[in-house]
Amino acid sequence: VSITVKAFMTAELPNELIELLEKIVLQNSSFSGNPNLQNLLILTAIKADKTRVMDYINRLDAFDGPAVGEIAVGSELYEEAFAIYRKFQLNELAVKVLLENVETIERAHEFATKVDEPKVWSELAAAQLLANTVPDAIASYIRANDHSASTEVIAAARRAGCYDDMVKYLQMVRKKGVKESHVDTELAYSFAHTNQHGPLEEFISGPNAANIASVGDRCFDEGLFEAAKLLYQSVSNWGRLASTLVKLHQFQAAVDAARKANSPKTWKEVCFACVDEGEFRLAQLCGLSIIVQADELEEVSEYYQRAGKFDELLSLMEAGLGLERAHMGIYTELGILYARYKEEKLMEHLKLFANKLNIPKLIRTCEEERHWKALAYLYVSYDEHDNAANVMMQHSTTAWEHIAFKDVMVKVANNELYYKALNFYLDEHPDTLTDLLEVLKPRLDHARVVDLMRRAGQLPLIRPYLESVQPSNLVAVNDAINELCIEEEDFEGLRQSIDSFDSFDALALAHRVEKMELLEFRRIAAHLYVKNLRWRQAMDLQRKDKLYKDAMETAAQSGESDLALELLQFFTDEKKPECFAACLFTCYELIKPDVALELAWMNGMMEYVMPFVIQFVREYSNKVDNLVQEKKDRANAETTAEEEAKAQAAQANMYASLLPPALPAAPGQGIPPDQMAAYQAAQQQQQMYGGY
Questions:
Q1: How far is 212 from 185, CA to CA, in rounded Å?
Q2: What is the value of pTM for the model shown?
Q3: SS3 at position 503
Q4: What CA–CA distances, in Å, run from 281 to 251, 255, 314?
């Protein structure tokens, strides 16, 4: 048989060979069950007559199924190959033919259901996964109890959103003892996504390898806040939990979580959410934990202001003042808020907490809001007194107070402000100008003040000030006071001024006042002439005004006999004997007796000259008596001196005999220096002549 078959094969007679093999194999012969002949028959049919292959497969049982099936697949006889694999119960290869060659998932699913083998289900699941029928694939993997493709299944399920199916699959995977992080993580997320909060809570409370934090973040990002809440609670992620509770509008719980997180970011998120929802009590609790951080304070304030919650923001800041960690920023921000929204409390706040404020920042705000009184106060507190003074003057209706302004002016550095302030007071508060001048007196240029007031025509307004600074004896001040005295006809004040202070043009003043109608001013003119040694001008003016007493005093004060004699002649010519007598008495030292007697005798005034003569005689009698007495006193003094000298000499001689002989004095001792030369010459001569 073998030789015959080989001969047919060598002759390439496949049809004839098929007929031969059918007679040998299909008919009951001793070679019917030969595997090689059955293989040869099927293979020859595959090559020569494919229509017979399926019949041969069904009728023959002893051929090599795997090998023949593989050849059939290679010859694209997929149904024949499927039949071969199925006949030999090679179900895995059979389902592969359906999936890979026939490409029919439905038949493969029917086949898998029929044979119900895990490997078949696994092959089907893989094909379904590639076909993107994810739910069917997951179901097939579950029936196959196969976890080997968990990564691919998870990825496909996530793309398809088949989380219900994935829960079942991942539960199967975990039952297989797989404890991988990506499996547990995805299972937790699947529970969350399908709102299976009970199983989720049970899962995360038990042992697992899931990355709970990442699952929580995914849930939060996708709006699965209830699940995120459970996840964040399980890992004590209080910051994210607070954010989640805010989304769930569970604000009280959010505040509790934020307190545990104690993070500025978390506090701000909860605070802002509470503000948006009108939960201002809870917002304040959060805000108090934020504003103690100086860097976060401004953001909180701006958020409240953008929301228009000004009263609530003020309440928050006022509560912040009582915190142990209250800092400068809180006091400053509250001041800014008062400046913007509650002006009536601004000044009280500034006065209470001036040393705790960021004054430059508040200054800018008060300038923007035009709170001039507060601005001036801040400048004073910041030692910027020049700016404070300018603000008070520029906005006097609200910022100026006399006492405060005086206190500021004594501290300004720019001297020009003094004179600007004087102009300001002249224009708006002339009634208190003198008070201001009194305060600024040590710092002012008094001459400039006088010039300023003179140009303004307000010198009378500052007379008390001028009188207080007159002791400095300045020309401008003296001239101003003298001018005021003249204008006000205050002759007593003028007399006091010119007598006390001499820095002024006395002659010019005298020429001015001698033409005035009031007698006292002309007397002052004469007085000025006297002070400037203009005796004749003074006396002429006094005689003209019949001020005879003043004229007499002027003549006496001048010390000039000619003036006194001229005045006597005037009185005799005017027949004024009483004045003649008074002049003799006043000018006693300047008038000679013979002249006085002559004038009196020639004008019949002898009785008026007698007091002068008597005084003169008395004076000369006293002088003679004094001379006689002085002579007697000298004689007595000389006599007394002689007697004392004699007494001393006698006393010295009485004790001389009791004394031992005196040693000879050293040569030249006791000789005055101016006689030493003569003494030395005498000694030399004595030596030359041997002592003779």
A1: 7
A2: 0.63
A3: coil
A4: 11, 11, 13
pLDDT at residue 505, as a whole number? 75
Distance (Å, whole) CA 69 – CA 54: 12
Would you give the distance in Å from CA 176 to the centre of its chain? 68
Residue 585's closest CA among 611, 559, 558? 611
Amino acid identity of residue 530, one-letter, is V
pLDDT band at 273 (very low <50, low <70, confident <90, very high): very high
Alpha-carbon gap, residue 55 to 45, rounded angstroms: 10
Q: CB–CB of 156/136 below 8 Å?
A: no
The two tokens of residue 691 are 């002592």
Kindly list the distances between the CA atom of residue 357 and the CA atoms of 294, 335, 361, 366, 572, in Å, as whole numbers in the listed order.
13, 8, 9, 13, 90
Report the alpha-carbon distance of residue 683 to residue 692 in Å, rounded.
11
Q: How far apart are CA 286 and CA 295, in angstroms?
A: 16
Instruction: Report residue 386 as tokens.
Output: 């020049």
The backbone region for 132, taken as left when phi is positive above 0, alpha when psi lies in -120 to 50, beta otherwise, is: left
Cα distance between residue 637 and residue 469, in whole Å? 61
Structure tokens, 649:
């000499």
What number of residues does the chain have?
Answer: 692
Tell me the C-alpha distance between 56 and 42, whole Å. Answer: 6
CA atoms of 71 and 39, how far apart (whole Å): 11
All residues at 6 or more sequence positions from 253 whose CB lies less than 8 Å from its CB, including other chains? 245
Most confident of 184-193, 324-333, 518-527, 533-542: 324-333
The whole-angstrom separation of Cα 258 and Cα 232 is 13
Tokens read off for 623: 């002088």
**Do residues 280 and 274 make contact, with C-beta atoms less than 8 angstroms apart?**
yes
| Spatial distance between the Cα atoms of 438 and 314, rounded to a whole number of angstroms | 44
Among the listed residues 248, 247, 189, the one whose alpha carbon sits nearest the alpha carbon of residue 213: 189
Give residue 28's identity as a one-letter amino acid code: N
The amino acid at residue 186 is E
pLDDT digits (tens, 9 = 90+) for 588-626: 777 788 777 777 788 878 877 778 777 877 877 888 888
At residue 286, the pLDDT reads 92
Position 371 scores a pLDDT of: 92
CA–CA gap between residue 567 and residue 583 (Å, rounded): 8
Euclidean distance between CA atoms 80 and 90, whole angstroms: 13
* Tokens (6 digits) for 662: 């005196």
